[in-house]
Amino acid sequence: MTHIPANDPNLTSWVDIPQGHHFPIQNLPFGIFSVNGDTPRVGVAIGDNVLDLPKVAELGLFADLDIDTSVFSQPTLNAFIALGQAVWRATRNRLSSLISSDNPELQEQAEAEGVLIPQAEVEMHLPVFIRDYTDFYSSIEHATNIGTMFRGKENALMPNWKHLPVGYHGRASSIIVSGTPIHRPKGQTRPNMEAPPVYGSTRLLDFELEMGFIVGKATELGEQVSTAAAESHIFGMLVFNDWSARDIQKWEYVPLGPFLGKSFASSVSPWIVTLDALEPFRVAGPKQDPPVLPYLQYEGNKNYDIKLEVIIETADGQSKTVCRSNMKYMYWNMMQQLAHHTVNGCNLNVGDMMASGTISGKSPESYGSMLELTWRGTKPIEMPDGSVRKFIQDGDSVIMRAYSEGNGYRIGFGEVRTKVLPAK
Question: Does 32 share its domain with 158?
Answer without folding.
Answer: no
